[in-house]
Design goal:
Strand content: 25-35%
CATH superfamily: P-loop containing nucleotide triphosphate hydrolases
CATH topology: Rossmann fold
Low-confidence stretches: none
Number of domains: 1
Helix content: 25-40%
Number of strands: 10
Structural class: alpha/beta
Radius of gyration: 18 Å
Strand order of the largest sheet: 6-7-8-3-9-10
Distance between the termini: 27 Å
Order of helices and strands: EEEHEEHEHHHEHEHEE
Largest sheet: 6 strands, mixed
Number of helices: 7
């Protein structure tokens, strides 16, 4: 079943009288539970595509349907609500709140959705911190964590509200290869156990190795769409 459909999606940025096309007519369907990477050279449109899918930006033309809901006509407030409840984000720079502990960073995300009482929130936060390998580190602030540990907090924060979709923009860019593998294994586990759909933007061959679908973008268009069996990327 399709979670996401893009039909002839274009994005044009304007600099004065100059038009700069970032996406030139993207057609894409993403099924629920996919583990997909988007790759291509710098300036190809990867980040723009993720921003449109994540409701951080609006297309210049075309149609985007998320879980049966057409996004084109939604205003900023409606898009913000959709992001809050249904989409998780993982960034290469982690984007953690420095004055909050690991527990509080994750707790902040689940409080925004206003679905659980205080006891349920604590139980869920502690469980997901264990799931991502951070048991015993709940009270550490970001400056007391390694890069890999910060990214684990970011993963927990993205997944705590049980979103339908997680968008990961270069999530391993600041990690060494061993830590990258550990972080990717966590995301594969969550994908398999929770059925969460993951879309990565990346230059990292290690991330591509885990993908079951690889989309190459060049000059604002999808130039390659390759699928692989799960067994091909098992570790």
């Amino acid at each position: 079943m399709a979670l996401l459909e893009l039909k002839e999606v274009r994005k044009i940025y304007r600099q004065g009288k100059i038009e700069v096309p970032a996406l030139r007519g993207i057609d894409l369907t993403v099924e629920k539970g996919e583990f997909t990477t988007v790759f291509g050279p710098s300036g190809s449109g990867k980040t723009t595509l993720l921003n449109l899918i994540g409701c951080l930006d609006k297309a210049s033309s075309g149609e985007i349907v998320f879980d049966g809901r057409e996004l084109t006509g939604l205003d900023k407030k409606e898009l913000a609500v959709l992001r809050r409840y249904h989409i998780g984000f993982i960034f290469q720079s982690y984007n953690l709140i420095p004055v909050l502990t690991a527990y509080e960073n994750v707790e902040f995300a689940i409080r925004l959705v206003d679905k659980f009482d205080k006891g349920e929130i604590r139980e869920r936060v502690l469980k997901i911190l264990v799931d991502v390998g951070l048991e015993g580190m709940e009270n550490r602030r970001p400056n007391e964590l390694s890069g890999g540990q910060k990214q684990r907090v970011a993963i927990a924060r993205a997944l705590i509200k049980e979103p339908a979709l997680v968008l990961a923009d270069e999530p391993t860019a600041n990690l060494d290869s061993k830590t990258s593998e550990e972080v990717l294994e966590i995301m594969v586990k969550m994908n398999q156990e929770l059925g969460t759909t993951f879309i990565f933007s990346t230059h990292d061959p290690q991330v591509m190795d885990y993908a079951r679908r690889m989309l190459e973008i060049r000059d604002g268009l999808i130039s390659q769409d390759q699928r692989r069996e799960v067994e091909d990327v098992s570790h």
